[in-house]
Amino acid sequence: MIRLITTRPCRIPVMSFLGALLLLTGGPGTAAIERSPATADHSKFESLKGPFDTASDVTSACLECHTEAAGQIKETTHWTWLYKHAETGQTLGKNQVINSFCGMAVTNEPRCTSCHVGYGWKDMRQPPPEVDSAVDCLVCHDTTGGYKKFPTLAGDPTYIPREWPKGSGNMVQPPDLPDIARNVGATGRANCGSCHFYGGGGDGVKHGDLDSSLVSPETSLDVHMSPDGADFSCSDCHTTWGHSVSGSRYQVNAKDTLGIDTPGHTDLSRASCESCHGDQPHNKTKLNDHVDKLACQTCHVPAFARGGVPTKMWWDWSTAGKLDENKKPITTYDEAGHVSYLSEKGDFRHGENVVPYYAWFDGTVEYTMVDEQFDIDNPPLEINRLDGEPGDPASRIWPFKQMRGKQPFDTEYKTLLATHVFGADDSSLWSNYDWPKALQFASEKSGLPFSGNFDFIETRMYWPITHMVPTADQALRCSSCHSEKSRLAGIGGIYMPGHSSNAWLNRIGWLVVALTLAGVVIHALARVLFRRRKQS
Amino acid sequence: MSRVMIFKRFERFWHWFQALLIFSLLITGFEIHGSYSLLGFGDATRLHTIAAWSLIVLWLFAIFWHITTGEWRQYVPTRDGLFAVMHYYLIGTFTGAEHPYRKTSKAKHNPLQRLAYLFFKLIISPIIWVSGLLYLFYSDWPAMLAGALNLETVALVHTAAAFAMLVFIIAHVYMTTMGHTLTSHIKPMVTGYEDLDEPAGKS
Fold first, then answer.
1. Other C-beta atoms within 10 Å of A18: how many?
2. Is B159 on the interface with A (CB under 8 A)?
């Protein structure tokens, strides 16, 4: 579990606090609900007594009994970082697509590959190392909380005390590998979270609905993962098959029509709400009438980044590189105490309790491939495109995090550019703040063309929101959508009572009502008037 | 002059319960429509649905009552005296003329009332009833219906009928003040009795 991948000192108190909390609660594996006891006590295995020189040696010990595990892992996207999309035909994966955070993983190894489920992937132009012992068992199966993939070692933990972040004075100690090896177990939230909570370079940066607050959340943050709630580990929903984990944002199951998964009847993958709740989950019929058009998450994730960890909403790379009078990098913070400028990364806007962006979605996301040409005259560029439309029975309205920002773009080739930000060489952006040099290096190293002419262009990227489901009483109210200021205003394809109405009907209707009232009032006044005249 | 039972117990119950339900439906309905915010959309919808079902049940009883008692004949339209009544409301009421219509327990509605109530019962109510049920069961429409109709149209018709209902109510409530005294038309709908020019006990 990496608790220390953080870019700024200001996060460290938060991190330490969460770390301490984790220690107090016993870390992953402490479950309020009973789970079936294991059939093996790993502390009794001779081969796990150590000592181990490297984490890879632990893997070799694991594979003595778990003979098929390495082969299984190497088939998964966790290992290959490749995904052949059945709908779009695109070959996706971390070395194929561009995002709006650090651009792409290629040329930024070993920083990015520190989250690869293996050891020693230092050059993403090559496939990951082939030896079975290059698979990292511990990142997923450590239950002590003591195993950390060091941020800059291409997947390895550190074997000597190392300072991180650089210049912080904080020393990261080598893990106690024999102790960790003897305490392996089922995966917990902190295991998956050690990578998935820190995507984009820091806690909560990327997804918005995945951050360290989910290690031990209140039920008001996540009713499923809370120790006071169902205390689910990620794999309780993201069920596995031979180490292959279900549930993918590359191909989302936007409308699970199989309903409750019953052994012998369905596929047993539980990575959808319907897998457990079925497709008629409410007591009130009118609420069930909504499920054909609305994803569960649309009402049941009222906002994301609710756990106290902000998520990045805007990232403008174009302003990166400004230095102070002493040629030192600058850091500024916004009112909420979130980083708003870093010389290394440019301007940021962070968000907490963010209301999602909503769109029709059939589960298919088209990604920008590294060589894709854009119409640069019509910014912002959509880095990924959501498929789906109102009339399509397979589509529903889903919540998304809309990530916005500016990133480098080749004005001649009309492609987004690979960004070499990290590296001990003298070309990376973070070592010398020189964009042309960094882009040139990235082009040479990745093989992606760069004309030498570049500019920064506004981009948008969409991230499906599905975690951080609170207790049902916190779901959206009817009036969140059925009102003048509807959350779904402008979504198209639906008539929303309370929000949509025919303007002409209203004009004519109220006019007739007003005329009737006026007629009544005039008639009544005339009666009074004539009665007085008669009396006089 | 004699005191005659003109609105029987069921008829009065039907009238006032219907009035209560229609006011509830108008208030919640226009909130659902988005005209204002009062109870909140969720509660407004729940109350609207409960009131609608109650009104449907009440109407079923009322229809049964009209048929079995023959009271439906009270609403058979007639042109005879219609223009005299209209003339009275437009001019006569100001000049101090007498109301041209003599009500009896067998014909308790004047020709204008007959037309207005018939319009209410045969046009506004059925349109509201049918469009409301379509609205309520929107998610269960059979494919053929879903292909031919959309929610927007149903909502449009339902709301248009609600406007017509509102106009009817305004006019209706005002007209009740146009008896000999302000309340002389309202009293029989409460007590059931009115003083008419017909022999007692004939009804």
1. 20
2. yes
Mutate to test the interface with A, among B38, B39, B41 (most CBs of A within 10 A): B41
Instruction: List the single best residue of A477, A479, A494 to mutate versus B (max B Cβ within 10 A).
Output: A479
Per the CB < 8 Å rule, is B40 touching A513?
Answer: no
Tell whether A484 is within 8 A of chain B (Cβ): yes
> Which pLDDT band holds residue B97 (cuts at 50, 70, 90)?
confident
Report yes or no: A177 and A148 within 8 Å, Cβ to Cβ.
no
Tell if the CB–CB gap between A479 and B155 is shorter than 8 Å. Answer: no
A117, part of any domain: yes
| pLDDT over threshold 50, residue A354 | yes
Which CATH number goes with the domain that contains B50?
1.20.950.20
Range of the domain at B152: 12-70+79-100+110-176
Tell me whether A280 touches chain B (CB under 8 Å).
Answer: no
CA B170 → CA A166, A428, A443, B121, B150, distances in Å? 78, 77, 76, 16, 31
Domain total of chain A: 1
| Average pLDDT value for chain B | 90
Residues sharing a CB contact under 8 Å with residue A536, sequence separation 6 or more, in sequence order:
none
Measured distance CA(A480)–CA(A290) in Å, rounded: 14
Of B42, B95, B171, which is closest to A516 when you measure between CB atoms?
B171
Does residue A364 sit within a domain?
yes
- Taking only the tens place, the pLDDT of each residue in A213-269 is 999 999 999 999 999 999 999 999 999 999 999 988 778 889 998 888 888 888 778
Q: Which residues of B touch A506 (CB under 8 A)?
A: 35
Cα radius of gyration (chain B):
19
CA A115, distance to chain mean position in Å, is: 15
A513 closest CB neighbour out of B45, B155, B167: B167
Q: B167 to chain A, minimum CA–CA distance in Å?
A: 6
Check B174 against A526: CB less than 8 A apart: no
- Mutate which of B30, B139, B141 to test chain A, going by most A C-beta atoms within 10 A? B139
Strand partners, A354: A304
Q: Do B170 and A501 touch (CB under 8 A)?
A: no
Helix (H/G/I), strand (E/B), else coil: A515: helix
pLDDT at A18: 47
Distance from the Cα of A289 to chain B's closest Cα (Å) equals 6
Q: Is residue B196 part of a domain?
A: no
| B3 located within any domain | no
Task: Check if the beta carbon of residue B112 is closer than 8 Å to that of residue B86.
Answer: yes
The predicted model gives B130-156 an average pLDDT of 93
Q: What's the total number of domains in chain B?
A: 1
Q: Is B201 contained in some domain?
A: no
Instruction: Please state, in angstroms and as integers, the Cα–Cα distance from residue A86 to each residue in A73, A367, A371, A382, following that order.
Output: 21, 13, 20, 21
Helices and strands (H and E) in chain A: how many: 14, 17
β-sheet bridge partners, residue A456: A408
d(CA A307, nearest CA chain B) in Å: 28
User: Does a structural domain hold residue B28?
Assistant: yes
Q: Cβ contact (<8 Å) for B34 and A499?
A: yes
Structural domain of A429: 9-30+44-255+295-476
B36 interfaces chain A, CB cutoff of 8 Å: no
Alpha helices in A153-227 (DSSP H): 177-182, 189-196
The whole-model pTM stands at 0.88
DSSP state of B202: -
**What's the rounded Cα separation, in Å, for the pair A157 and A166?**
16
Residue A518 lies in a domain: no
A420-458 pLDDT per residue, tens = 888 878 888 988 888 999 999 999 888 888 999 999 999
Q: Which of B94, B156, B171 sits opposite A520 (nearest CB)?
A: B171
Q: Which of A477, A512, A526 sits opposite B163 (nearest CB)?
A: A512
Confidence band, pLDDT 50/70/90 cuts, at residue A52: very high
